Amino acid sequence: MSTTRVEHLIIGGGVAGVSLAAHLAERERAAHERADVLLLEAEPILAHHTSGRSAQQLIPSYGPDAVRELTRLTLEELDRTQAELAHPVVWPSGFLMAGTEEQVAAGASEAMRRISLDELAQLAPELRIERFEAAGLDTTAVRSNAPRLIHWHAERARSAGAQLRTGARVTGIEPRPAGDGFEVSVQTETGTERIHARVVVNAAGAWADHVASLAGAAPLELTPLRRTAAVVTLAEPLAPEHPLLDRADEAYYYRPEGEHLLISPSEAVPSPAEDAQPILAEVEAVIELIRQDTTLQIGPVQRAWTGLRTESPDGVPVVGPDPEVPGLFWLAGQSGYGFQTCSALARVATDLLVDGAVGDWCPAWAAQALDPRRFPLAR
Ligand SMILES: Cc1cc2nc3c(=O)[nH]c(=O)nc-3n(C[C@H](O)[C@H](O)[C@H](O)COP(=O)(O)OP(=O)(O)OC[C@H]3O[C@@H](n4cnc5c(N)ncnc54)[C@H](O)[C@@H]3O)c2cc1C
């Protein structure tokens, strides 16, 4: 069996792995005129798991401090770089939060402006306004076309010289003697291959703790959490510019999806790492809640899906070298923020992998918040 040799092996072809492949390959090609980056995805297509199942929003007022800062930086970069594209990958789409005074105050941040109930009623005329006390609006939020964003990053990676392979599941990661990288076993349709990788990047989403264990690393106690979304019909469509409406107690969110409505029960239920499937009774229950709060005439469910938002113990993604295993690098724990932080996380990871430190484009406190060494090791 022949052994391929590669400098950077990325495991996982979701938004995290593909964004990193693009950034890293472009950086390597600029420095050495060639990129030595290989991405392996177990499934037959990229973004089959969580990255193919998101709500495709990027919301600067959403998430812990570091996530909000990384979202701002991601939006800056996407805005700048998407100018080269015929069709944008992100475009403005407001984020509205409504609930009790206390809930809205707890969810508010610098990107979110408090608005009156009159303004709320104008922005979301379908609401039974007497059921709400307070609201906030983030006009800096954007919507994305996630498949287009992934495709664009994959094309950028390939044209910079990276290889992206699907149907290639990593089944073993053996550290080689004298710190000379890893011997990686890969299962494909045609059999098992071996790859000698100097650095392995773990961008395996819900499987990240498992992948780390293949390399002998301790888990970071990442928890995959179920989150369902569905598209339902409406007797009368909402205005296309209607913001995403999030009930501040996280009971649900909804937003227009063409002439239909995208809804989510906003659940966060721990799950094994698996191909998660929706529970239709939960979708029906959230439709009932939305009916109680609005005058929307909701019809049948067109489609429903569930993905796993994989969360670290403090809810902030994990980007950096493994605390114990040299050459193993984490890019995981993106929770509900994988799209909104994709470019900034890929850039942080690229800086760390190439330079060993993050450039001053990213505030030091935000980069430090991602460090895997912040957790006690669970052995
Ligand atoms: C309903 C829902 C709504 C969401 N809405 C938003 C939103 O509006 N905005 C936002 O920013 N985020 C949102 N998210 C979260 C976002 O989708 C995730 O943060 C993001 O997709 C995580 O990307 P990832 O690349 O880390 O994981 P994944 O997309 O799961 O990719 C990991 C990949 O690793 C592969 N893999 C695992 N093990 C191996 C192995 N051994 N060998 C090879 N490959 C392997 C898997 O097959 C998988 O494709 C939402 C999530 C859900 C479920």
TrEMBL record:
GO molecular function, one term: oxidoreductase activity
Assigned keywords, A-Z: Oxidoreductase
Listed InterPro entries: FAD-dep_OxRdtase (IPR006076), FAD/NAD-bd_sf (IPR036188)
Pfam families: DAO
Gene3D superfamilies assigned: D-Amino Acid Oxidase, subunit A, domain 2, FAD/NAD(P)-binding domain
Oxidoreductase keyword on record: yes
SUPFAM superfamilies for this protein: FAD/NAD(P)-binding domain
Domain of life: Bacteria
Protein name (record): Glycine/D-amino acid oxidase
